[in-house]
Design brief:
Chain lengths: ~240, ~120
């Protein structure tokens, strides 16, 4: 078998694209480590860019890629369940913060939906894009379901969700430092609410309490946003 | 480790079944999260405080959470399907994402800190 035919074969196998996903992430993580966890050197963004470039260069359709990558994608569900462990570990401090958490949850979830749709509408984004961007602060699987139910494009929502996570993970540390917020419960809660799992991953690298609160915010927002979007959207889109 | 992975999956499965059969507003994995935390709490009440990091489920959960970022890569790569749409509306959507994320962070942290101070006084 010549090398071209070997490549043509490999390109269609799940094994190759699963390996490529892990390789891209390991490279991205090494770069992030070298930058000493600087928020702008975000591992998800770098890994996505590397894989997307490889798909474009090789002319591989996303569907072929996903046959391999689905094994990683599937783990989003069990990883959400796994957040029960830090929730249990930090239960005492969580119980002390119930009132601020409830208030911040409602305020943050509403602001996330209204501001995203309103700004995109000002930029004349089409109707499907407005529906697709509404649940962007919620973790991927949940946001896709909400978008689909209301007439949005679920795969576009997935992309917007990941971009939101990356933006949130990049901005949260400099923003909170500039504001002088030293309460890591509050910082983490904001990161998880605005930027779901990617914000939560960032919060865990900064502080364990921040990580636990980010995980809780992500879980709570996954309940609140699907309930709020159908209530808010008719007011924003005709 | 295997038992830990099993426990995570069974929590998700039960969460999924509950969410669908009772048409709960929360998605299956989130109900699974609550079930897992509740189960750990009950376990601790029966047999004293649990050093959860040393348990099978703790090890499985921590391993998964250590690579949480990786799990978003396949969904993010979906961007390759939307280059056309993004070429047209990318600026509007990009500005919306950045503005909304900043506003959401500010609103959330502001309300959190303010209510906490108000409750303490």
């Amino acid at each position: 078998m010549n090398s071209w035919r070997l490549w043509v074969y490999l390109q269609t196998t799940p094994l190759f694209w699963l390996t490529a996903t892990l390789a891209a992430f390991l490279v991205a993580e090494a770069l992030s480590k070298r930058a000493r966890g600087h928020p702008l050197v975000n591992p998800v963004l770098i890994a996505v860019a590397l894989v997307a470039a490889l798909l474009k260069l090789s002319g591989t359709p996303y569907k072929t890629y996903f046959e391999g990558a689905q094994f990683v994608h599937f783990l989003l569900g069990p990883a959400t369940v796994a957040l029960g462990v830090p929730l249990y570990k930090n239960f005492a401090i969580v119980r002390k913060n119930l009132a601020p958490m409830a208030a911040a949850l409602l305020a943050g979830a509403s602001v996330a939906i209204v501001s995203a749709v309103a700004v995109a509408a000002l930029g004349h984004a089409p109707r499907e894009a407005l529906i697709s961007i509404a649940p962007k602060s919620v973790t991927a699987g949940v946001a896709m379901a909400v978008s689909e139910q209301l007439g949005g494009l679920a795969p576009l929502t997935a992309v917007l969700v990941v971009l939101t996570g990356v933006i949130g993970a990049m901005l949260v540390t400099p923003l909170m430092n500039a504001l002088g917020v030293r309460d890591y419960a509050a910082r983490g809660f904001a990161a998880g609410l605005a930027a779901h799992g990617i914000g939560t991953a960032r919060a865990f690298t900064v502080d364990p309490v921040a990580g636990a609160f980010a995980g809780i915010a992500m879980g709570l927002n996954a309940v609140v946003t699907p309930a709020l979007v159908p209530l808010i959207l008719p007011w924003l889109i005709r | 480790m295997l038992r830990g992975v099993f426990l995570l999956l069974i929590c998700q499965l039960v969460g999924e079944v509950l969410a669908r059969s009772l048409s709960l507003p929360a998605p299956g994995p989130v109900i699974g999260l609550a079930l897992l935390a509740g189960a750990l709490g009950l376990w601790a009440r029966r047999s004293g405080p649990v050093e959860v990091d040393d348990t099978d489920v703790g090890k499985a959960a921590n391993a998964l959470l250590a690579s949480l970022s990786l799990l978003f890569v396949p969904a993010g790569v979906g961007v390759v399907q939307y280059f056309d749409l993004l070429a047209h509306y990318g600026a509007a959507l990009g500005v919306a994402l950045i503005a909304s994320t900043v506003l959401t962070l500010l609103a959330t942290v502001g309300v959190f800190v303010w209510v906490k101070r108000w409750a303490a006084s």
